[in-house]
Amino acid sequence: MKKILIVEGNLKEENQSFTEGGIKTHTESLKDSISYFTNDLEIDVVNPSSDKNISEVAKGLEKFDGMIWGGSSLNIYNDTLEIRRQIEFMRSCQNKIKKILAICWGLQVAATVAGGQVKRCMTGSHRGIAHNIEINSSGLQHPIYKNKSETFNTPAFNFDEVVKLPKNSILLASNPINKVMGVNFKSGVSDIWGIQYHPEITYDKMISLIHFRKDRLLNNKAFVDEQEINNHVAMIAEENKKSNKDLRMRELENWLNYLLK
Fold it and tell me: Rounded to two decimals, what is the model's pTM?
């Protein structure tokens, strides 16, 4: 049986607030989505920001056939102890784990470690949804987008973006907000498939996150007022009615097939 590592990017305090608010953590959402495709995996979970045994975990990373590093509300350019711990753990992973799926925050950490750069996005943000992602010619040839529509919408939540890619990266997909929406690069021993969105998270959860983060989003001027939030949520709900679960999660399915082959 293949063994994978799931890395939780959020701080334990954020996850505790999720749980208290009746929202699944990103790791719980990811495990649910993986189980939709396969139960033939042994899964370990780690949180580099808070796990006291993280250095011991780092010593045994060779036992994992792959890793999925998920989302977070953190910003990579903030120099905190918790973020530095995640960066150092990603560096260890890139030296020992061959197959990595880096989702949203995971992509930002992976790209930073591999020599890329992440900054606040100057063209907007994705607040629960990303529209009009276009797969380019390289992406159409890449297995992450096998059987995916050439242009698609998807759950997403990010205010930052990769502005400088690691050397020898292959850009796979873009949209009007983020040039880097899908990318493939090698670092250390790792083949990293990176996406700046969340195929593993439902639109329903994204709507819950918007309500959960309402005050934060208003304070950060992500929305003008509550009416704009309500209109935005209604738009996502309409998209959800049209969304197909298998198509939405195609990237996760394709990475799992790559892992299991």
Answer: 0.97
C-alpha closest to that of 129 among 248, 18, 28, 252? 248
> What is the token pair recorded at 192?
């990293």
> DSSP per residue over 4-63, as a string?
EEEE--S-HHHHHHHHHTT---HHHHHHHHHHHH-S-EEEEEE-TTT-TTHHHHHHTGGG
| DSSP conformation letters of 69-122 | E---S--TTS--HHHHHHHHHHHHHHTT-SEEEEETHHHHHHHHHTT-EEEE-S
The string of pLDDT tens digits covering residues 131-148 is: 999 999 999 999 999 999
- Rounded Cα–Cα distance for residues 152 and 145 (Å): 11
Structure tokens at 167: 């050397």
Contacts for 89 with CB less than 8 Å, ≥ 6 apart: 7, 46, 48, 54, 57, 58
Which residue type, as a one-letter code, is found at position 132? N
Which CATH fold would you assign to the domain 2-260? Rossmann fold (3.40.50)
Do 3 and 42 contact (CB within 8 A), yes or no?
A: yes
The tens digit of pLDDT for each residue in 208-247 reads 999 999 999 999 999 999 999 999 999 999 999 999 999 9
Going from N- to C-terminal start, the domains of the chain cover 2-260
The residue behind tokens 């990579």 is 76
